Amino acid sequence: MALLQLERISAQYPGATTPVLADISLTLGPRQLLVALGPSGSGKTSLLNLIAGFVSPSAGRITLDGVPISGPGAERGVVFQDDALLPWQDVLANVAFGLELAGVPRQQREQRAQEMLALVDLAGFGNRRIWQLSGGQKQRVGLARALAADPRLLLMDEPFGALDAFTREQMQELLLQVWRRTEKPVFLITHDIEEAVFLATDLVLLAPNPGQIVERLQLDFGQRYATGESARSIKSDPLFIETREYILAQVFSQRSAAPRQEPA
Amino acid sequence: MSSLQIPAALKDPAASIPAPVPGRRLSTRWISTLTLVTLLSIWWAVTAGGWIEPLFLPAPAAVLEKGWLLATQGYMESTLWQHLSASLGRIGLALGAAILTAIPVGIAIGHNRIARGILDPLIEFYRPIPPLAYLPLIVIWCGIGELSKVLLIYLAIFAPIAIATATGVRTVDPAKLRAAQSLGATRAQLIRHVILPSALPEILTGVRIGLGVGWSTLVAAELIAATSGLGFMVQSAAQFLVTDVVVLGILVIALIAFALEMSLRALQRKLVPWHGQSH
After folding, report:
1. Residue ranges per domain, chain B?
2. Which is it for the CA torsion B38, B43, B44, B48, positive or negative?
3. Beta strand A4-11 with A21-28: parallel, antiparallel or unpaired?
4. Residues of B in Cβ contact (< 8 Å) with A82
5. How many degrees, rounded to 5, is the angle at CA B204 between CA B200 and CA B210?
6. Which positions ≥6 away from A250 have C-beta within 8 Å?
7. Residues sharing a CB contact under 8 Å with residue A264, sequence separation 6 or more, in sequence order
8. pLDDT in tens, A180-231
9. How far is it, in rounded angstroms, from Cα A236 to Cα A166?
10. Which CATH superfamily is domain B68-271 in?
11. Chain B CB within 8 Å of residue A74 CB
12. Given CB atoms, is A115 within the 8 Å cutoff of chain B?
């Protein structure tokens, strides 16, 4: 099974004085759903871009199963905030795109794409055009596309950020089902506290200037959902509310402390 | 309008007066058609009334009659169709060559820093020069044969396509590029599967603009040195004051340009149905 390790990662934009991320260490292994939560400017997206290989760290080491990451690759599937689907292909071809790039024969890759569409509850949508889909459906196609290439882990960049509240809740539940069925490690970033608490097995709270981890929590609400408890009962559980309020307090204390803190 | 009608209808449905019927208003297409019909009628009226000498403006019927004569018997040893196919052949050849070369050049400019440094100033230098200004140089270098004319049109079409392609390549959504990269796309696959389709709407717009420029350049080139072609036909008819052939030639040139533009628009709708869709 896949094991992602980040050892003392720092990142800096060329020309900038303060780093975007400083001294980040993380591990992500099997059956984990790691959520990075933080306000804008805390370097969440930079962290995901580092793991995806779109940018390189200025210091530190990122390895997947012991192999250093250099550049983007198919073993790390990415789901983007704004779907990033290709409108000149239909839904099925979009899902099969990774396999097409890998040279898999048409029949085989289309069969795999159909399976992935069924996994995200979009069976029968294969011939639709991208612009005929709703926002939630596009994100599901994006998820199916990332899964079809059979990556070793899944990176999700605020995947439900642009969706309305109802669709977002459905998508969170769908993600937990997919996560449980595929057993792939997931790294997800979000600024939605309730989403983070509900989904995460491991939650890291990021603070800005420079982006750093200020809190690590291990949670089990997502696992409770995966084993059959309803989302409503979990979200109304006093423990859930308490955790949510605790993290909210942490975010605010970080924010009020921020001006006094010297950049480390 | 509807916000006013609805409360009235709610109050008393029986008394609802069919005041402004929506169908009464002229559609834009109808207004355009009416304008054309009016122009034609004025043309017909002033010529039929004898207010203008046929030497300056022949009657529509005379032009049509001449058209028939040209199509069947010809003018200056060639029929209208031969003149037309000479012109279309030239622009077709130039367009084909321009598409084959300008699109790779545009991709190189948009994708590669060094290629941009080399090619961008060259294209920007010659693009604003009216083709007829460098035609004499081309004639000196390549003579007055077909090559000069096709080369002139080619140069006129090349720049808009290359520039439009480069713009299209530069404005490719970075998220789509990253998505393909994270699915394992190589550099060549990125160009083939993401960059080229992304830039296709801009490329087709470039072809449309290029064809417009090319067509006007073609006719102008044929005015100067040719023995066939629509431009030649108009030019030689003008020298003998055969005004009806001149008018007919101008009309045919306009019709071809219009047909080219319309068919390219149709092609654009067919090839890039996602363009303009909020996806």
Report:
1. 68-271
2. positive
3. antiparallel
4. 175
5. 140
6. A205, A214, A215
7. A22, A210, A212
8. 888 899 999 998 999 999 999 999 999 888 888 888 889 989 888 888 888 8
9. 17
10. MetI-like (1.10.3720.10)
11. yes
12. no
